[in-house]
Design a protein that fits this description.
Elements (H helix, E strand, L loop, with lengths): L2 H11 L17 H7 L5 H9 L4 H4 L5 E6 L16 H15 L2 E6 L5 H11 L5 E4 L6 H12 L4 E3 H21 L8 E4 L3 H12 L7 E5 L2 E2 L9 H4 L10 H5 L4 E4 L8 H5 L6 E4 L9 H7 L4 E4 L14 H10 L7 H14 L6 H7 L20 H15 L14
Parallel strand pairs: 1-2, 1-3, 3-4, 5-6, 5-8, 8-9, 9-10
Antiparallel strand pairs: 6-7
This protein binds NADPH dihydro-nicotinamide-adenine-dinucleotide phosphate, pyruvic acid (PYR) and magnesium ion (MG).
Cofactor: Mg(2+); Mn(2+)
Family: Belongs to the malic enzymes family.
Catalytic activity: oxaloacetate + H(+) = pyruvate + CO2; (S)-malate + NADP(+) = pyruvate + CO2 + NADPH
Length: 413
């Protein structure tokens, strides 16, 4: 067994199995404590909440509690390995919520027969939580699931693989285009993958100025074009009126490659076909569409990003979901809307242009980081992400009328 594999297994097995636990927040030592925490004292908040459901935010952990919910149908780029196998990833998301935004979170892996059954299961438990982070649910079901749950729940429901990924991709892409001297409205974009992450990433890039007809989206069968009759309604939106059929057809002369598909689908020879100063976001986890070493060997003028922590330029939804939920929970937003997402894009990308704190350099094991080809986006452990992104998101919630509490004027300042 490789050293790294054993290290990863040991990390998950020790000192206790898994990565999260529950901690008490009040004293529960004495008989007096117990009479308050449990019977008879617990009856008092029960009565209050029964009379006024909003008091659940006052007397329970609801307001700082996010459920990470999956059915395990698209676990990273590993595919449909079922709910139980997805548990380490979901515990990982809970770890990240706590580590980066002090949000308590619990993973819930749901077995189900039909999409309706999944939706019912989540909708029926939603009131327990302050927010729901849907994770690793494959397309196209993920679109219907998220839409139905947003309609049925009065707390934010956010499919991280769609919107978290799109927000971070847009933030990194705007900066990368800036560095490469390219105009988002002019660039030819190849998107490998046509699932949850791909559709959301391309829609957000279009909102940021990219031209739909300059996007070539590919699934396992090749380019999605207007003469295909085997594509769902979500892929249909990206059907390009083109004669291009293969990855090689599409990437010839392309400025940008965004990979949200699977491992090793982009060859060094494909990279050589791209336009000058190309950008490659190979975001499949754990193994990217192309290894950075191979891509850099093929092109000197490249900006390269992956979803991983062990290469420069980590384009990963961890840069978004803890912070966007912090802002949404603090504003008690009823939803996470477009304005909140766009606010997150700009808050994230601006940080990369500023001087990097020493704590980030130390945690990254480097002497310096400066906005440029090897540093297009902040590191996840950057302490500025929490206040900046949460504030931008919460203010956007207030401005768009979805906040349900007043924010202190100096919130996160
Ligand atoms: N870095 C990050 O932050 C994130 C990265 N991702 C990565 O994106 C990938 C997709 O995730 P997600 O969108 O949630 O999953 P989905 O199952 O919703 O979509 C997967 C898509 O990728 C396509 N695909 C898979 N393998 C290949 C291949 N070999 N060649 C071409 N297309 C392929 C599928 O094609 P078809 O439609 O034909 O089946 C499908 O369109 C994963 O690798 C995941 O790790 C996802 C979220 C965040
Ligand atoms: C990062 C992530 O959410 C994924 O790869 O699915
Ligand atoms: Mg995911």
């Amino acid at each position: 067994m490789s050293d790294f594999r054993q290290q990863a297994l040991d990390y998950h097995a020790n000192p206790k199995p898994g990565k999260i636990a529950i901690q008490l927040t009040t004293s529960a030592e004495t008989a007096d404590d117990l009479s308050l925490a449990y019977s008879p004292g617990v009856a008092e908040p029960v009565r209050e909440i029964a009379a006024n459901p909003d008091d659940a935010y006052k007397y329970t952990a609801k307001g700082n509690l996010v459920a990470v919910i999956t059915n395990g149908t698209a676990i990273l780029g590993l595919g449909n390995l079922g709910p139980l196998a997805s548990k380490p990833v979901m515990e990982g998301k809970a770890l990240l919520f706590k580590r980066f935004a002090d949000i308590d979170s619990i993973d819930i892996e749901v077995k189900h027969r039909t999409t309706e059954e999944f939706i019912d299961t989540v909708a029926n438990i939603a009131d327990t939580f302050g927010g729901i982070n849907l994770e690793d649910i494959k397309a196209p079901e993920c679109f219907e699931i998220e839409k139905a749950l947003i309609a049925r729940c009065n707390i934010p429901v956010f499919h991280d693989d769609q919107h978290g990924t799109a927000i971070v991709t847009a933030a990194g892409m705007i900066n990368a285009l800036d560095i490469q001297g390219k105009d988002i409205a002019e660039v030819i974009i190849v998107c490998m993958g046509a699932g949850a992450a791909a559709i959301a990433c391309m829609e957000l890039l279009i909102s940021c100025g990219a031209q739909r007809e300059k996007i070539y989206m590919l699934d396992r069968k090749g380019v999605i074009h207007t003469r295909r009759d085997d594509i769902n309604e979500y892929k249909q939106r990206f059907a390009n009126n083109t004669d291009k059929r293969t990855l090689q057809d599409a990437i010839n002369g392309a400025d940008v490659f965004v990979g949200v598909s699977g491992p090793n689908v982009l060859a060094a020879d494909d990279v050589k076909l791209m336009a000058d100063n190309p950008i490659i976001f190979a975001c499949s986890n754990p193994d990217p569409e192309i290894k950075p070493e191979l891509a850099h060997a093929a092109r000197q003028d490249l900006i390269m990003a992956t979803g991983r922590s062990d290469y420069p330029n980590q384009v990963n939804n961890v840069l978004c979901f803890p912070f966007i939920f912090r802002g949404a929970l603090d504003a008690r937003a009823s939803v996470i809307n477009e304005a909140m997402k766009v606010a997150a894009v700009h808050a994230i990308r601006e940080i990369a242009k500023e001087e990097v704190p020493q704590s980030v350099l130390t945690a990254s094991g480097v002497e310096s980081l400066e906005f440029g080809t090897e540093y297009i986006i902040p590191k996840p452990m950057d302490p500025r992400l929490l206040p900046r992104v949460a504030r931008a998101v919460a203010l956007a919630a207030v401005e768009t009328g979805v906040a349900r509490v007043e924010l202190p004027e100096n919130y996160m300042l």
